[in-house]
């Protein structure tokens, strides 16, 4: 990315971290994968239990592979050979984990986390699950406000995730949301987290660059 544009994106990150802080959500900015991993290790107690939400960002940043090398008990939803029943059990166990890692569909500059789920396991865990939530996000997830967050999901996140998951939904072909009624629709639960009572619960780590959808 052009250095001038990057400077603007860094300003947006710092502005958004200030917005998150007002909502009792912690924000950090790291400039490398190594620093991301160091921050994750700082936040998760050694040998704690962990779980993750479905996330392209966690794949692209190598976070899933990193977590598998650490001394955590990992309820790994991506482990090979899982049956539908196994996956359901892992989603339930995630609520008991010491820490839950995920990304979100958008983060507003005033510090709101916006997520849209199909089955709802991620948003449920984020709302009322583990005592520690770690959100990993590229600066492409930052939007001005909630209407822009909704638009981002309809125009970018959901269509791209449908392509990735090969769901057969119409937005794969239209390139944007048409409010489908397809059984495989991935937009079912629309959740905004606007504040936390516990100021030590949610931690958002921005990584320098564009990751995920
Ligand atoms: S509601 Fe349907 S058409 Fe709209 S983004 Fe979600 S899956 Fe695609």
Give a short summary of the structure.
The chain is built from eight helices and ten strands.
Unreliable spans: none
Overall domain count: 1
First-residue to last-residue Cα separation: 17 Å
CATH fold-level topology: Rossmann fold
Assign the CATH class: Alpha Beta
How large a portion of the residues is in β-strands, by DSSP E? 15-25%
Task: Please provide a written account of the structure.
- The protein has 213 residues and is α/β, with parallel strands linked by helices.
- The chain has one domain: NagB/RpiA/CoA transferase-like (Rossmann fold).
- Helix content is 40%, strand content 20%.
- The protein is built from 8 helices and 10 strands.
- The strands form 2 sheets. A 6-stranded parallel beta sheet has the order 1-10-7-4-2-3, sandwiched between helices. A 4-stranded mixed beta sheet has the order 8-5-6-9, sandwiched between helices.
- The model has no long low-confidence stretch (mean pLDDT 96).
- The structure holds iron/sulfur cluster.
- Iron/sulfur cluster binds at residues 154, 158-159, 162, 169-171, 177-180, 182, 185-187.
- The site of iron/sulfur cluster has 15 residues, from helix 7.
Provide the descriptors you would attach to this structure in a database record.
single chain; 213 residues; alpha/beta; Rossmann fold; six-stranded parallel β-sheet; four-stranded mixed β-sheet; 8 helices; 40% helix; binds iron/sulfur cluster
What layout of secondary structure does this protein have?
Blueprint: H1 3-22, E1 26-30, H2 33-43, E2 49-52, H3 56-60, H4 63-69, E3 73-75, H5 84-93, E4 99-102, E5 106-108, E6 113-117, H6 121-128, E7 133-138, E8 142-143, H7 146-165, H8 171-174, E9 189-193, E10 202-207
């Amino acid at each position: 990315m052009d250095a001038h544009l990057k400077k603007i994106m860094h300003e947006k990150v710092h502005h958004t971290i200030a917005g998150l802080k007002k909502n009792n959500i912690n924000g950090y900015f790291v400039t490398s994968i190594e620093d991301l991993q160091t921050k994750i290790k700082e936040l998760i107690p050694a040998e704690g239990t962990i779980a993750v939400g479905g996330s392209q960002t966690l794949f692209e940043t190598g976070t899933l592979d990193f977590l598998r090398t650490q001394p955590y008990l990992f309820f790994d939803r991506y482990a090979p050979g899982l049956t539908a029943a196994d996956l359901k059990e892992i989603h339930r166990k995630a609520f008991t984990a010491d820490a839950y890692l995920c990304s979100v569909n958008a983060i507003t500059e005033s510090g709101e986390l916006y997520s849209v789920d199909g089955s709802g396991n991620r948003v449920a865990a984020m709302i009322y699950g583990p005592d520690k939530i770690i959100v990993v996000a590229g600066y492409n997830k930052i939007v001005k406000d909630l209407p822009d967050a909704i638009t981002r999901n309809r125009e970018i996140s959901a269509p791209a995730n449908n392509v990735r998951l090969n769901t057969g939904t119409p937005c794969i072909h239209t390139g944007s949301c048409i409010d489908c009624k397809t059984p495989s629709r991935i937009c079912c639960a629309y959740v905004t987290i606007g504040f936390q009572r516990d100021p030590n619960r949610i931690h958002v780590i921005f990584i320098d660059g564009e990751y995920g959808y």
